């Protein structure tokens, strides 16, 4: 086994590349989590976004319109969830799962009826999200390999993580959002419109979920495939749990998943059994969740004992 | 509490409506067979049924372990079935599914529905057939890509090891052509498969042997995506192999393979297609495709039922010699590379093909495969 071939600079970008869709998904789930809403529908919102992005990019030849439509589609899906959950008090997990199944079915149906294809849609006319090439980096081989030719949405995710962190912890809106999540009755007493906050949280979550889908189908690849999210939305929700809704910790959780994925891809090449390697991301999910739950319990215990 | 019960019920309803969406009806109502071909390359050892089949419309169901539209294995199978619809006017139903639960449910639904012939498109159905086929003695079953014993089962498999041998040899020669853009000086080639099932190992054994036949020092990187329909996973695995020094990767992954070909295009490297002719999917990035005539297998078995020559319990094995597996003619890459196209690859592949047919080269099989 050749370790220099496994642990090289390209592994760093590979980790980030495979983590990016999960980071978007996790941020989508994190916003609603702060308002105490578990967004299981992330997967479905993403899938709809991915489909909308490819379709519009193919029909109009503009990736920007594709991305915007994807966000609009994500918004629509999230509004179904919001109205069901807030207005009609539906159980959020049930409606989230409903969104996921609906997304698989509607994208399959539209793929057949609008684009006239089944299974996969990949045409040269689809305009992908452009990559950023930084000519001054080419002089340094290491930096060039690391940072050049990133997709715009890959750079943007870093901005988004910081922006969301700022909104959560440094703005009034973020404070209100967290208040709604932690103690809605108190927030209500303080004059915050709890339902309006929840609607806003789900709406923003839908926009980010749609963007996640657009990155998947126009950034990470240039095609749409039925159910192309393949549980990346759920991995995002798991990462969000790992970071307890904190955007930066959540992103770290995603990078752990991305790393286990990329390292697995490299290890397989040297005859490590595929079953073992393909299991790794899931083992990592369980281990990280177990650790974060255990530490949460320990904190809780400590808090209670100090009260007594 | 009541709300929860209702929401669970609603979720269940959605599950069932989704299952209904997953099926696709391809039935056509053309006139009964007007045309018969004289091709008799299936085993016609005994005629188990009399020819009542041709009088009424023959009903055929194909169950897939994946989705149509993979531009590969499943689409190839569907092409054969559609050809049979056009030629014999059969009624055709295609059932797609992406999970093992769906495969078994689709398979059982088809068996219960009483089709004349049920074609299981891949070896993923092997276990269900072993378990259930005996319970439906009046239904004829066929399986492609593996062998299942049973009086009402016809098995058709391919010498994918032979086709892959040629692909491996071509890849091993290609990786030394450093004057072509994107080819590095390391003697490393890659191979990315879908699910880790025996038939894919039969591909791999041939690929590796072919590569080592050309150059014993070559390194072959192997990876499985674990799924037939996650192109993003396929792309990631392919890019990882390129980053480890490979410059050409063979795709054996149905829908996952679309990502492999896209990865080749994006990285400025090369890939080898599989099952159908995929040379034009990412023109200029696909060296050749190992074509596996799944369409032919599907067509022949339907034909045997239409003509009443279906021979339960028989197995056939399509090899390089019968044209069951082959490489494409390299014409697309030739055009893309122009003067730099290495003609010696084509010549050597043709030579190796003859050696396999004549038996001079014996291509190894994975355990449990090969002529029965």
Could you give the topology of this structure?
The complex is a heterodimer of chains A (308) and B (372).
Chain A: H1 3-6, H2 9-34, H3 42-60, H4 63-87, H5 92-113, E1 120-121, E2 131-132, H6 141-147, E3 150-151, H7 152-170, H8 172-182, H9 184-189, H10 194-220, E4 224-225, H11 232-242, H12 247-268, H13 274-307
Antiparallel strand pairs in A: 1-4, 2-3
Helix pairs in contact in A: 2-6, 2-7, 2-10, 2-11, 2-12, 3-4, 3-5, 3-10, 3-11, 4-5, 4-10, 7-8, 11-12, 11-13, 12-13
Chain B: H1 2-21, E1 23-25, E2 59-63, H2 73-88, E3 91-95, H3 100-113, E4 117-120, H4 126-132, E5 140-144, E6 153-158, H5 160-174, E7 188-193, H6 198-214, E8 219-224, H7 231-243, E9 248-252, H8 257-267, E10 270-275, E11 286-292, H9 294-306, E12 315-318, E13 325-327, H10 331-337, H11 343-358
Parallel strand pairs in B: 2-3, 2-4, 4-5, 5-6, 6-12, 7-8, 7-9, 9-10, 10-11
Antiparallel strand pairs in B: 1-3, 11-13
Helix pairs in contact in B: 2-9, 5-6, 5-11, 7-8
Structure, described:
The complex is a heterodimer of chains A (308) and B (372). Chain A is mostly helical and 308 residues long. Helices cover 76% and strands 3% of the residues of chain A. Chain A has helices spanning 3-6, 9-34, 42-60, 63-87, 92-113, 141-147, 152-170, 172-182, 184-189, 194-220, 232-242, 247-268, 274-307, and strands at residues 120-121, 131-132, 150-151, 224-225. In chain A, the strands form 2 sheets. In chain A, strands 1-4 form a two-stranded antiparallel ribbon. A two-stranded antiparallel sheet of chain A has the order 2-3. The longest helix of chain A is centred in the last third of the chain and has 34 residues, at 274-307. Chain A starts with a helix and ends with a helix. The mean pLDDT of chain A is 91. Chain B is α/β, with parallel strands linked by helices and 372 residues long. Chain B has 2 domains: 25-158 and 294-318, Response regulator (Rossmann fold); 160-293 and 321-358, Response regulator (Rossmann fold, 3-Layer(aba) Sandwich), CATH 3.40.50. In chain B, the strands form 2 sheets. A 7-stranded mixed sheet of chain B has the order 1-3-2-4-5-6-12, sandwiched between helices. In chain B, strands 8-7-9-10-11-13 form a 6-stranded mixed sheet, with helices on both faces. The termini of chain B are far apart. Classes of the chains: A mainly alpha (308), B alpha/beta (372). At the A-B interface, helix 2, helix 5, strand 1, helix 12 and helix 13 of A face helix 1, strand 8, helix 7 and helix 8 of B.
